[in-house]
């Protein structure tokens, strides 16, 4: 008996096609179709600190945003430049220490020390990673994995920057509202900024580097230079997160180089959907509160993330946001072949 | 003299750690980031066999090597096979696997000084006036034995030749009827078993701690990069270079710098000779 063979056909919704061009402004429907997901995200993030009552969960919201930033940085490097960095903690560590130093040694206030530390930290990370930029895939991944370990060893061995005690007494934000909204606005700015950036000429070149760097080289464009720019952008985001953390905990120490800052953003990106940028944020919105609920299990949490990560990458490697975007933009039907 | 003796011991230990990783990557282009986790898992399993189940040394060691090998095969067969050919996913998936094993072991209480494997033959001997315990000599002997065994295996057995065929030209090998996936399964199993052997030989020199799992992975990759991929001679030479460099730093500086040496070796190699010591042009294209 011949089995009836079917395949799933996906077609763009009419409203998506209309909303892509100038007709987006033709009616409220199209405009709403375009704006609804963005508004939900922005409003959701802005209202989150208002909706949760306890200071503990307010803190969780800020941590979600921190990991969202780190996830953005990972997603940008991995899916738009093709550099898989397993060492996100390098940027958080450098940024955190830089901000703590700027605050303690130079006496700069918070709103100066964080941006300064982000930029300076971005430069430092880029310089550190410069020799590894010609590397691809596995090699880049493992070398970046080593960096946070090595840096924390160096801090320990030379007993610099406060050694194992870290740098205490970093200035705080002075209130939960400033704490929450600084990081939320930073996250939203970076998210929409990066989304715009990857569609500019720079983003085009970076994707060229990812897909076929020989062709980019043949076009007379320096691959290493653009990789360095991308690493600078990504590590600036990471350093921003690290600098924020140093001020949030009023302390910069070796725990800023912890494995968490490398692994969680990757897990968040994989769950949320790589290559969408917003997926990293959505992923951390799911993972971090979940991990807070699992806090009593101690170190088993990391094992749990690893399990979720494995499950997603093997069974649903596209991630939630890619799936959601498909459902939103397209309808599906079965057709007979 | 002390530096030479301990340098050799350290180099062979590094080679032991790295062989499994090099093997898997060399044959099936699969970066097995769970390598360090298998190493620690093997140590733990052997400990359970000897201390908790009282199975005797030989039985539990053999059983451990076997079980870890099977686990490696299973990891490829049921898990990594689904992300084969997507480098990003391969790295993340195998790293997640390793992370899961390591952190689950940590949760089981694998920390501190309580977990040690027995040495095979206790005692110390004086070699050129340098005290060396028998276990360290055994490391060198077993390391040399494994290298020789692998060399014979890949030159003279059908399976070994098939593995080399896949490593050299996957498509030509497939045309000759060699199943790429089956070979990758075998390679992962073999690589994990090698990690287990390394663990059983090396772990009696210290404690079984989770952190060592990450270090083993790092050293393995350092050796791999410095030596050039898939090249046995390169891997062994690289482990000697890194091994001696480490011993020199430990004796003239602090032991904190061991990992730093590995990273420096990688960076210097990449700047000076990106394809590694024994790498060929084809590999250069893949890496850089």
Q: What does it look like?
A:
The complex is a heterodimer of chains A (337) and B (288). By secondary structure, chain A is mainly α. Chain A has a domain at 36-258. Helices cover 70% and strands 5% of the residues of chain A. Chain A has helices spanning 14-20, 28-51, 55-81, 88-104, 110-129, 137-158, 176-197, 201-211, 213-218, 223-248, 260-272, 278-293, 300-315, 320-329, and strands at residues 6-12, 167-168, 251-252, 330-336. In chain A, helix 3 (55-81) packs across helix 11 (260-272) and helix 3 (55-81) packs across helix 12 (278-293). Chain B has 288 residues and is mainly alpha-helical. Chain B has one domain (2-210). Helix content of chain B is 74%, strand content 3%. A two-stranded antiparallel sheet of chain B has the order 1-2. Chain B is globular and about 55 Å long. Chain B starts with a helix and ends with a helix.
Task: Give a quick summary of the entry.
Chain A is mainly alpha-helical and 337 residues long. In chain A, 70% of the residues lie in helices and 5% in strands.
Annotation keywords:
heterodimer, A: 337 residues, mainly alpha, two-stranded antiparallel sheet, 5% strand, globular, B: 288 residues, 74% helix
Instruction: Quote the average pLDDT of chain B.
Output: 78
Oligomeric status: heterodimer
Total strand count of chain B, please?
Answer: 2
| Radius of gyration of chain A from CA coordinates | 21 Å
Shape, per Cα inertia axes of chain A: globular
- If you compute it from the alpha carbons, what radius of gyration of chain B comes out, rounded to the nearest whole angstrom? 19 Å
The computed structural class of chain A is: mainly alpha
Strand content of chain A: 5-15%
Number of helices of chain A: 14
Count the E strands of chain A. 4
Largest sheet of chain B: 2 strands, antiparallel
Kindly give the count of domains of chain B.
1
Catalogue the unreliable spans of chain A.
none
Distance, first to last CA of chain A:
16 Å
For the largest beta-sheet of chain A, the strand count, sense and barrel status come to:
2 strands, antiparallel
| Proportion of helical residues of chain A | over 70%
What general form of chain B does the structure show? globular
Widest sheet: strand ordering of chain B? 1-2
Largest interface: A-B, 43 and 42 residues
């Amino acid at each position: 008996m011949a089995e009836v063979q079917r395949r799933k056909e996906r077609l763009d919704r009419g409203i998506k096609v209309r909303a892509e061009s100038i007709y987006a402004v033709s009616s409220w429907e199209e405009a709403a179709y375009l704006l609804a997901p963005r508004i939900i995200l922005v409003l959701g993030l802005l209202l989150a600190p208002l909706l949760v009552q306890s200071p503990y969960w307010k803190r969780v919201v800020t941590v979600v945003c921190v990991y969202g930033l780190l996830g953005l940085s990972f997603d940008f490097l991995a899916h738009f430049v093709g550099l898989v960095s397993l060492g996100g903690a390098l940027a958080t560590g450098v940024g955190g220490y830089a901000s703590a130093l700027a605050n303690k040694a130079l006496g700069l206030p918070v709103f100066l020390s964080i941006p300064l530390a982000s930029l300076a930290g971005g430069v430092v990370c880029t310089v550190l990673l410069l020799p590894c930029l010609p590397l691809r895939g596995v090699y880049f991944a493992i070398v970046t994995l080593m960096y946070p370990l090595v840096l924390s060893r160096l801090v320990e061995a030379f007993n610099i920057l406060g050694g194992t005690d870290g740098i205490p007494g970093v200035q705080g934000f002075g209130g939960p509202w400033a704490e929450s909204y600084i990081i939320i606005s930073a996250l939203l700015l970076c998210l929409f900024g990066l989304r715009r950036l990857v569609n500019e000429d720079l983003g085009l070149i970076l994707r060229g580097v990812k897909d076929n760097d020989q062709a980019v080289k043949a076009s007379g464009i320096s691959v290493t230079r653009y990789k360095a720019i991308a690493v600078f952008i990504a590590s600036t985001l990471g350093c921003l997160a690290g600098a924020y953390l140093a001020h949030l905990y009023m302390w910069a120490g070796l725990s800023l180089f912890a494995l968490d800052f490398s692994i969680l953003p990757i897990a968040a990106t994989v769950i949320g959907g790589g290559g969408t940028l917003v997926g990293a944020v959505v992923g951390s919105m799911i993972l971090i509160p979940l991990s807070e609920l699992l806090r009593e299990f101690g170190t088993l949490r990391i094992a749990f993330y690893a399990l979720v990560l494995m499950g997603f990458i093997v069974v649903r490697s596209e991630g939630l946001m890619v799936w959601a975007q498909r459902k939103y933009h397209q309808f599906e039907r079965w057709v007979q072949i | 003299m002390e530096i030479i003796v301990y340098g050799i011991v350290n180099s062979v230990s590094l080679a032991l750690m790295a062989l499994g990783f090099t093997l898997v990557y060399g044959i099936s282009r699969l970066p097995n980031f769970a390598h360090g986790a298998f190493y620690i898992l093997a140590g733990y399993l052997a400990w359970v066999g000897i201390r908790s189940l009282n199975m005797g040394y030989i039985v539990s060691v053999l059983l451990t090597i076997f079980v870890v090998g099977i686990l490696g095969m299973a990891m490829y067969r049921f898990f990594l096979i689904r992300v084969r050919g997507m480098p990003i996913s391969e790295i993340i998936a195998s790293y997640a696997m390793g992370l899961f094993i390591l952190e689950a072991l940590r949760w089981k209480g694998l920390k501190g000084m309580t977990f040690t494997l027995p040495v095979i033959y206790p005692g110390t001997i004086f070699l050129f006036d340098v005290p060396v315990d028998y276990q360290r000599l055994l490391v060198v002997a077993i390391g040399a034995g494994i290298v020789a065994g692998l060399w014979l295996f890949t030159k003279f057995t059908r399976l070994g030749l098939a593995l080399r065929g896949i490593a050299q030209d996957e498509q030509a090998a497939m045309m000759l009827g060699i199943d790429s996936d089956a070979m990758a399964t075998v390679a992962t199993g073999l690589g994990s078993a090698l990690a287990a052997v390394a663990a059983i030989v090396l772990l009696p020199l210290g404690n079984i701690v989770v952190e060592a799992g990450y270090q083993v992975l790092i050293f393995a990759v350092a050796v791999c990069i410095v030596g050039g991929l898939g090249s046995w001679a390169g891997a062994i030479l690289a482990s000697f270079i890194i091994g001696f460099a480490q011993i020199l730093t430990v004796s003239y500086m602090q032991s904190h710098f061991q990992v730093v040496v590995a990273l420096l070796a990688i960076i210097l190699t990449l700047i000076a000779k990106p394809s590694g010591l024994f790498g060929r042009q084809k590999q250069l294209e893949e890496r850089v």
